[in-house]
Amino acid sequence: MTDIHSLDPAPNALTITIDTFRPCLNDTFRLTARGDVLDLVLSEVEDLGDSANRRAFSLMFAGPPQPAKPQGTYRLDHPAIGTLDVFLVPLGPWQGAFRYQAVFA
Length: 105
Known about the structure:
Blueprint: H1 18-21, E1 28-33, E2 36-50, E3 55-63, E4 72-78, E5 82-94, E6 97-104
Antiparallel strand pairs: 1-2, 1-4, 2-3, 3-6, 4-5, 5-6
């Protein structure tokens, strides 16, 4: 688990970088949507190189195999990072879980 004091407690779209998430690899993020709660594990953090605005990166999350959430923006909570609204794309089954991706570019 990440040290709760090591990260900005309330990052926003302008302050989030790949370094925000690297210490959280294999941590659980709680997804909340319309009364549903789902635990997702951050399974991969990938540097995608420079984009027009900043250094792009991808996050892969693994969640329960079913029911999968549709593509959309979801609230994710993490004890060290705080609460973020993240656009997730469902990718499909992966190693007994269901995989989701978020891209920041």
